[in-house]
Amino acid sequence: MSSEPRQSPTRQQRDQKLSDLADIFMGATLSHYSKSPLEDAPKAKLITANAIAEQLDLLSDELLPVWLKKSDISRFIVCAGDVVLSARGRIRAVVIGPQVANQQLLPGANLVVIRPREPGLNSCFLAELFNSGESLRQMGLVVGSRIPSLRASDLKRLTVPSLSKTQQQAVVELARARTDAVDATMALAEQQYKTASQLIFDLIWDGSDT
After folding, report:
1. Residue 41 CB-density burial (10 A; 0-12 exposed, 13-18 middle, 19+ buried)
2. CATH 3.90.220.20 fits 17-162, yes or no
3. How far, in Å, CA of 77 to CA of 104, rounded?
């Protein structure tokens, strides 16, 4: 018996292939850039998987300076609203925001860029699909506990849930609330740690018998 998730006929008819909704392409290879300075070559910042933080933000300190070898590399430069997805090892996705899109960011070869073409497709909703282990299994990207290497052709064949704009926004807002809750919890834990550490210090040095 098949273990694939079953959907109602109505839902199957509504769902669409990702390639019908977005442009999908792999990042640039070493033939497109150099990590060593090149005279008169334009500079960019290389995005690697290490730059995608656990909190699903881009880490500025992990963006590597590179020098472009080719003049026709503009097709690789990411834009605001692009979803950048790590294609090797652990799958993680991040949405490129307008505040970093103007930094001439170049995705590396181990990344996939998904650029929504359909106005009704929310980038944050799309990223949430790839950041959910259960969603990865539903889309057939995980076999057992193994996460395979992804290719652009793999993603183009994917069928993604067709949610209304309102439903997609609800997913985005819940994901944002989840992140805010985690951040608040971590901030509280850090403050409690500092307070307890100071009390321990005071007891040791100010509360000792003299």
Report:
1. middle
2. yes
3. 6
Tokens 């000792």, residue located: 208
Q: Quick one: CA dihedral 62, 67, 71, 72, positive or negative? A: negative
Q: State pLDDT tens for residues 119-159.
A: 888 999 999 888 887 787 777 776 555 656 777 888 888 88
Distance CA 78, CA 70 (A): 16
Residues forming beta bridges with residue 33, ordered by sequence position:
68
Distance CA 26, CA 109 (A): 6
Which amino acid is residue 46, in one-letter code?
L
pTM: 0.76
- Nearest Cα residue to 127 out of 149, 96, 159, 106: 96
The sheet carrying 22-26 orders its strands as: 22-26, 111-116, 83-86, 93-95
Phi/psi at 48 (nearest 5 deg)?
Answer: -120, 175
What is the domain partition of the chain in residue ranges? 17-162, 163-210
State both tokens at 121.
């497709």
Helix H or strand E encompassing 9: helix 9-14
For residue 45, give the amino acid letter: K
Q: What DSSP character marks residue 139? A: T
Alpha-carbon distance values, 140 to 11, 87, 128, 163 (Å): 17, 15, 16, 19
Tokens of 7: 């959907």
